[in-house]
Amino acid sequence: MSGSGWVRDQYQYSWLERLGINVIKVGSIPRHVAVIMDGNRRFAKQSGVATIQGHSKGFEKLAETLQWCRELGVKEVTVYAFSIENFKRDEKEVKALLDLAKEKFKVLISEEEKLKKHGVRVKIIGNISYLPEDMQDIVRKAEKITENNSESTLNVAFSYTSREEITHAVSEACKMVDKDDLKPADIDQDLLERLMYTNHSSEPDLLIRTSGETRLSDFLLWQASNSITYFTPVLWPEFSIWQLLVGVFLYQRHHSSLDKLRQAGGEKGGVSDCQMGQIEQDSAVAGVPG
After folding, report:
1. 165: number of CA atoms within 13 Å, CB side?
2. From the CA atom positions of the chain, what is the Rg in Å?
3. What is the DSSP letter of 212?
4. Which residue of 28, 130, 180, 261 has the fewest C-beta atoms within 10 A of its own C-beta?
5. pLDDT over 70 percentage in the chain
6. Could you tell me if 101 and 81 are in contact, meaning their C-beta atoms sit under 8 angstroms apart?
7. Do 279 and 228 contact (CB within 8 A), yes or no?
8. Smallest Cα–Cα separation from 163: which of 107, 95, 221, 249?
9. Are 92 and 124 in contact (CB under 8 A)?
């Protein structure tokens, strides 16, 4: 098996890792896990290697994490791969990042049969018009070849920010009003959600951010408003199955309360700050050593 692919058929779990997985699987498993993969550049600096090598290590960790999620029974994963804000970085780094992404999407396309075997559908969420035309073609092909797979979904947020997504949805709604396809009074939350890049997706149940940062960095701000959030200090390339299990355990501690709050929000128009208080206290920082 190549170590550079998206789909890993084998991961050699230790007996302790297997025990941890089996214990966690006794409880409820989040259907949808979202990940802010932060810390690649710091990992590269600490390791004394080029920045792009840190990003490459980050991709290897993503492939491992996707296999762990499949093992646990997670049906949907959304990863923050490239923010629109990243275009503001050094031109050389941006080019290296885009070249790496192009290479990895080509690898994904070459794994069409593996993706079909595992039933993985790939969706790109973001404004791909910012990308070079050849890369737009590649990401569209990645979506096309997996569109009929239905066991699980991998959402890759690429050329994405939440503010741009919301702005795009509002803009599309305004265009519909201009064309007399709907009335201004018809614009509501449900319509905007249908116009977002994530319209095919469920709300994230668990959101994980690595590297010790405790902010969402313009990622799924609308969709993750009621998610359990787990911040871990470990850098993304050093993320292990144990951090994933801790995040799932945190979700298990709170998912019943969260389900009730989501139901109350749907019925009464929102969840109060007071109701969310205890969950936020417990989920603010629940890291384990990297």
Report:
1. 24
2. 19
3. T
4. 180
5. 89
6. yes
7. yes
8. 221
9. no
- H and E: helices and strands count for the chain: 10, 6
Strands 206-209 and 228-231: parallel
Query: Structure pTM?
Result: 0.88
Residue 1: CB atoms within 10 Å: 9
Over residues 13-40, the pLDDT tens digits come to 999 999 999 999 999 999 999 999 999 9
Q: Rounded to the nearest 5°, which phi and psi values hold at 212?
A: 90, -10
Q: Torsion angle of alpha carbons 243, 35, 261, 192, nearest 10°?
A: 180
- For residue range 141-165, list pLDDT tens digits in order: 999 999 999 999 999 999 999 999 9
Three-state SS at 194: helix
Largest CA distance in the chain: 62
Element (H, E) at 138: helix 133-146
Task: Output the DSSP codes for 101-122.
Answer: HHHHHHHHHHTHHHHHHHTEEE
Q: At what angle do helices 241-268 and 273-283 cross, to 10 degrees?
A: 180
215 vs 117: CA distance, rounded Å: 36
Per the structure block, which two tokens stand in for 68? 């762990």
Short-list 78, 76, 32, CA closest to 219: 78
Phi, psi (degrees; rounded to nearest 5) at 118? -90, -5
Grouping H, G, I as helix, E, B as strand and the rest as coil, residue 26 is: coil
Give just the sign of the alpha carbon dihedral 9, 15, 20, 24. Answer: positive
Beta bridge pairs of residue 230: 208
Is residue 96 a contact partner of residue 52, using CB atoms and an 8 Å limit?
A: yes
Residues in the chain: 290
